[in-house]
């Protein structure tokens, strides 16, 4: 089985490890990063998010953490406490009093590296021709260009799903952000059909979002797969913004990372980003975008970084970004965006009425299950028709086995001609507290 690539983003750069195996522990990853990239990470936690809220255990394996090819992990390096790796060149300096001290990383790399965050040229190769030097230098230069067209031709989203998401945000007067993942199908004509929205556990403010560890992540993916669906995009909602400010740096980086994961690298993908907001008059705005393949590449290589200016991505000092003919220390996120046409449809596959998981002040209860099942036999609704609600199916996994009972329920949803045995109906009715 071939290994995967894992990337580590820190304040001093982004590094890659190739040939990482599912059985590798995070302690082994740390050791490899130290050895291959000449940095001391012994006192630094490896985390799943930039804020450092979810740390990986040293004995945890890559497989247990569900890392995929190109996965980004994070380390918040304390520049005052982390010294240069002992194997690095030029890491020691003699002070006027004769004492020998270790220089910090930025001092060493900025003073002697080919570029900030890199080793000196002589550490790479003893002799360089001008053409070799130019070729090497060009690898770290990016001429930023706006994409002419996106890779996704159109996104269609279920009307009930987007309206429910919209109505929920109205409860907060669009004063906070909210994030959800779109599940549906990629079509052969590079279009996307989104059947439902799943909102993971999250913490948000008016300008930031953090996706929290989701104990049901694998259940969600498993259920979606049984229904013949997969993650095809994501959606975020935000308060009204000034004209021309579409994506923050965090939203841009997240969109790029999601596209990289969907495409398994810097490849074409219809994976789409939708956003929901209001204008200054309170009118709803729904738009869809993709980030460019150039943005995907720049994120994969660690070129782009957080910025104090929300509407821009900072450029890692190791690299050079040329914007409109001039070197830029940060890039307006609009340079990476292309719009995607949107249409709505009324799904004939799934219904969307059961309360959503992971919402504030919203609970999924047996009474909700009873209410939904009470529609069976009315207006032509069958038991399988009312069962065909992703949120309801997800709720049932609290009581039924994903591997034993749920496949039969999902088959009854995907093929309405597939009979659902009376035993399953009785079991689900009993969960709802309904009379037999």
Walk me through the structure:
The protein has 13 helices and 21 strands. It is 27% helix and 24% strand. With 436 residues, it is α/β, with parallel strands linked by helices. Strand 17 and strand 18 form a beta hairpin. Helix 7 packs across helix 8. It is globular and about 85 Å long. The strands form six sheets. An eight-stranded mixed sheet has the order 20-14-13-12-8-9-7-21. A three-stranded mixed sheet has the order 2-1-3, covered by helices on one side.
Outline of this structure?
The protein is of the alpha/beta class. Helix content is 27%, strand content 24%.
Number of strands: 21
Average pLDDT metric: 87
Overall SS class: alpha/beta
Largest sheet: 8 strands, mixed
Our estimate of the beta-strand percent is 15-25%
Instruction: Provide the gyration radius in Å.
Output: 25 Å
Helix content: 25-40%
Stretches where pLDDT is under 50 for at least 5 consecutive residues are: 80-111
Q: Counting H and I runs of at least 4 residues, what is the number of helices?
A: 13
Which strands sit side by side, in order, in the main sheet?
Answer: 20-14-13-12-8-9-7-21
Q: Given the C-alpha coordinates, what overall shape results? A: globular
State the end-to-end CA separation. 51 Å
């Amino acid at each position: 089985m071939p290994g995967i690539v894992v990337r580590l983003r820190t304040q001093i750069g982004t590094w890659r490890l190739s040939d990482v195996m599912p059985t590798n522990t995070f302690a082994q990853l740390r050791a490899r990063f130290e050895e291959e990239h000449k940095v001391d990470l012994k006192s630094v936690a490896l985390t799943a998010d930039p804020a450092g809220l979810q740390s990986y255990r040293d004995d945890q394996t890559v497989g247990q953490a569900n890392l995929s090819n190109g996965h980004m992990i994070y380390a918040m390096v304390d520049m005052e406490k982390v010294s240069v790796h002992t194997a690095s060149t030029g890491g020691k300096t003699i002070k006027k009093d004769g004492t020998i001290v270790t220089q910090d990383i930025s001092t060493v790399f900025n003073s002697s590296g080919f570029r900030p965050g890199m080793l000196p040229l002589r550490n790479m190769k003893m002799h360089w021709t001008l053409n070799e030097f130019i070729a090497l230098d060009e690898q770290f230069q990016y001429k930023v260009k706006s994409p002419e067209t996106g890779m996704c031709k159109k996104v269609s989203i279920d009307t009930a799903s987007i309206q429910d998401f919209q109505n929920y945000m109205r409860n907060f007067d669009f004063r906070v952000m909210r994030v959800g993942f779109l599940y549906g199908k990629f079509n052969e004509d590079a279009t996307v059909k989104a059947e439902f929205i799943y909102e993971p556990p999250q913490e948000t403010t008016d300008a930031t979002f953090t996706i929290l560890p989701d104990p049901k992540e694998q259940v969600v993916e498993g259920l979606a797969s049984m229904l013949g669906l997969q993650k095809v995009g994501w959606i975020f909602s935000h308060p009204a913004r000034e004209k021309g400010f579409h994506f923050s740096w965090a939203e841009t980086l997240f969109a790029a990372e999601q596209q990289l994961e969907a495409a398994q690298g810097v490849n074409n993908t219809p994976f789409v980003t939708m956003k929901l907001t209001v204008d200054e008059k309170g009118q709803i705005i729904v738009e869809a975008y993709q980030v460019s393949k150039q943005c995907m590449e720049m994120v994969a290589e660690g070129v782009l970084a957080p910025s104090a200016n929300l509407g821009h991505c900072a450029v890692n000092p190791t690299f050079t970004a040329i914007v409109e003919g001039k070197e830029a220390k940060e890039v307006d996120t609009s340079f990476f965006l292309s719009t995607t046409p949107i249409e709505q449809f009324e799904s004939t596959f799934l219904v969307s009425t059961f309360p959503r998981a992971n919402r504030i002040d919203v609970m999924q209860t047996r009474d909700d299950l009873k209410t939904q099942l009470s529609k069976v036999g009315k207006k032509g609704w069958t038991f399988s028709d009312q069962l065909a609600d992703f949120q309801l199916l997800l709720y049932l996994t609290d009581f039924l086995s994903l591997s034993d009972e749920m496949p039969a329920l999902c088959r009854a949803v995907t093929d309405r001609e597939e009979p659902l045995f009376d035993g399953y109906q009785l079991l689900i009715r009993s969960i709802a507290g309904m009379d037999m």
